[in-house]
Amino acid sequence: MPEPADRAPTQLSDSEVDLTKPSAARMYDWYLGGTSNWAVDRLFGKKAEETWPQVKATALHNRQFLRRVVQAALAAGIRQFLDLGTGVPTVGNIHDVIREHHLDPDDEARVLYVDYEPVAAAHGRRVLADDDVTDWGGLAQRDMRDPAAVFGDSERIRLLRMNQPVCVLFIAVLHFVGDGDHPMRLLDEYRRRVVPGSWIAISHASNDAAPPEGAANIQKVVDSYQKTSNPMWLRDRAAITSWLDVEGWELLKPGVVHPPDWRPKPGTKLNAKQEDARPYMWSGVASKN
Length: 289
Ligand SMILES: C[S@@+](CC[C@H](N)C(=O)[O-])C[C@H]1O[C@@H](n2cnc3c(N)ncnc32)[C@H](O)[C@@H]1O
Prior knowledge:
This is SAM-dependent methyltransferase. GO terms for molecular function: methyltransferase activity. Keywords: Methyltransferase, Transferase. The protein has one domain: Vaccinia Virus protein VP39 (Rossmann fold), CATH 3.40.50.150. It has eleven helices and seven strands. It has helices at residues 24-31, 39-51, 55-75, 94-100, 118-130, 147-152, 154-159, 183-193, 212-224, 237-244, 272-276; strands at residues 80-84, 110-114, 137-140, 167-171, 199-205, 249-251, 281-288. It starts with 23 loop residues before the first helix and ends with a strand. The site of S-adenosylmethionine has 22 residues, from helix 1 and helix 3.
């Protein structure tokens, strides 16, 4: 099969993208079957898949978790979404899930996507324009470790009303935040800026519930991410629980579980490949009292 063109289909010039190092956003796009990636990303992604064959199925589980959280938040009456570490937009973006929900015309939902990676940001803006959702959807190219910059961004100010609940999504992004950047403190910064009724959703790579061989394999991949633009860390269930189950917040049912186990669609059955990929992330959602 021919390789996709060695260009991501964006308006970006090479000088705007670091082509010497793979990026988490573009590798994740490759894991999900997208085309917004460069040779350096595909090479690294293929090596990751050889080392840890569950990588693609794990990414898909994660994407499905995101979808179900947005559906649950909409069902709970939340109408604003702040998606931190959006990635290169692919199918099942938050605005797609909102559209599928068929809200009444006067019942408006809004979404702000945040990513600091130039390809993810350029694609995000283009997808929002192509999908004709720029009235209620926007993208801020920001480092989410700087909440003041995120909340001060003109797109945030245009789109999100901070006196109304927001669903803040940290989906597969906190494993790119090292302990030196104090994830708990960072989460507190987001928690304090949202009103009661808001949600925080997290999914995070892990290996504490994985079989020994798989646990070693994902660890090797994580170690190799040190050479990319996005060093990565694994954390265990206790750590993720401690980030979500905090005073003033309620950890929503079913608690901190693997992504396919968070409120699966009734009757969902995992095939062998999906089952194999179950234990490599933890996920959960908490609501502000
Ligand atoms: C694995 S992708 C996850 C994409 C999406 N959240 C999902 O789960 O489908 C992680 C994304 O987080 C972004 N990212 C990592 N650290 C970030 C930071 N400090 N600020 C903003 N984006 C970040 C990367 O550029 C990448 O696009």
